[in-house]
Amino acid sequence: MTKVSEISEFDLISRLETILENNVTPNKDSKVELSIGDDAAVIGNLDNLQVVTTDAMVDKVHFVSDQVDMRSLGWKSLAVNYSDIASMGCKPIYSVVTLGLRADILVEQLENLYLGFSDLLNTYGGDLVGGDIVKSDTFFISVTVVGSTDKPETMQRKTAVPGDVIAVTGHLGSSNAGLRLLLKNELQKSSHFYEAHYMPKPRIPEGISLLDMGIKTGMDISDGLVNDLMKICVASTVNATINVDKIPVHDDLKKYFPNEYKEMAVSGGEDYELLITGHESLIRYISDSTDIDLHIIGEIEIGSGDVNAVDSTGARISLNTGGWDHFTEN
Amino acid sequence: MTKVSEISEFDLISRLETILENNVTPNKDSKVELSIGDDAAVIGNLDNLQVVTTDAMVDKVHFVSDQVDMRSLGWKSLAVNYSDIASMGCKPIYSVVTLGLRADILVEQLENLYLGFSDLLNTYGGDLVGGDIVKSDTFFISVTVVGSTDKPETMQRKTAVPGDVIAVTGHLGSSNAGLRLLLKNELQKSSHFYEAHYMPKPRIPEGISLLDMGIKTGMDISDGLVNDLMKICVASTVNATINVDKIPVHDDLKKYFPNEYKEMAVSGGEDYELLITGHESLIRYISDSTDIDLHIIGEIEIGSGDVNAVDSTGARISLNTGGWDHFTEN
To answer: Which ipTM was obtained for this model?
Structure first.
């Protein structure tokens, strides 16, 4: 085992580059003309539009470096950025990664982190073209991803209109279950909840298909369904009403959290599923004609940025949970 | 004064966005179609090639947060990235910034940081289109910049050939002088050395002109002239010989550091000047026909990655200074 302080920056970059070379399947439609090793990477002409997003993960805030599985952390730190690309309906093209490293971080840990990057690149495409390595008292990973589309518009938040229905992919709340179990030291590796928390699946193919089939409004659920739906409502100047009984949840979530699963699905966060709105007929058509796992959970109404919740009987629900400080009964 | 822990992330982003809105002159040829406020920013079709670079600055490594002028830090953290774009011969198009924030950092400090970003954007162009804000025990700033060119190639490191001469822009060593004075608490604000250390001028127009006029080999000097020249030599599989008496230095550097100025110019670092190679006739033509401040300091020879130094008498020089561990007399 080798501490990063024991080898040169050049040797460290070389070892991490080797992990990518040995583990990432070459991308036959790669746009990269010059990768790691110059002042900047060079990329050929992209399609019409490009999108850019950046998200960082920080030790003791988003993970605990001496407990986390570094390969899972590599997956997750790139996946949360890919999820933003998916939410615009775009494909990932290239990424850069900056590592802030404590002197005692092991090179082998970083090689595992890069194996996690490799896993994600092999699954969803795109190239990791470079980055920066700096010393830091706090270990952090800062990722920037550029994606593109040949469509004239991306999905956005500001295009929801009254009459749209609201739909989500997959199921919600399981990542929050993973976090709760982790905090109690009860999270089993490779369990459903572990996968949901550490290895979220960015909805890249789903996002591309949704944009392609005419969906204009979308985002990914990172801060919890209601928090994120409120962002669409504010950006579009509309209200939303969701039926909490229609929110898709995994059977394991109901089984292990019978009293809390609805709250977890509504406000848990880090689901990285897509949240979209559109004409009901279009969304039903997409749901019927593709294998995208879409669930209609509510509708968009005239308003100015509020989210309301009801249950299947039509009764108004007031859920007040962590991070959900905007959502009080009114 | 307001600590970042006292306001919401939404309000913090809003205050920083306001700084940009009020201080950055709108870019008439901006490619940005959607900026801060969605999952990702959207950018229209760029020119043929694009380049991407990322560089982070970390508290207690690159600066000391309770001593540094935040406006200068904002300038510098974006400028060091712009310098990489300049070294490829490209123009900056857009940037994203991730801030890792301690709870006690003041909002007003961050507003000053964003004033520094604004200063640089107003001087060199490009748009700041978004970012991420995360909690961190260590304050850091991670920046990614994308640039582009309508030329078929960028400047690179691997294209130097024997017979090329080596040239640099501006003058070297003054940033290192600023650092030395800073460490002795003797750095006067707005002195020449302060400007050199905290407000480096990325050579954007010079880089664009050099590529346009046919220069193929270039990089920026961030780790010291010899360290960086060695990177060109390794990438191009050539040797280099520089004449230390031809390295341009500022009069103040000679005056205040009469015994050390040559060493500082050769290995000081953080100069952010351009280092190029090319046919002597082309470089002399550029120097004569433009106002680029170019100085020929040596030549490229057959070899495999070594840098040698001589003085004006032709005598071989062995300089052995900090960070310069590869350069021993042989």
So the answer is: 0.91
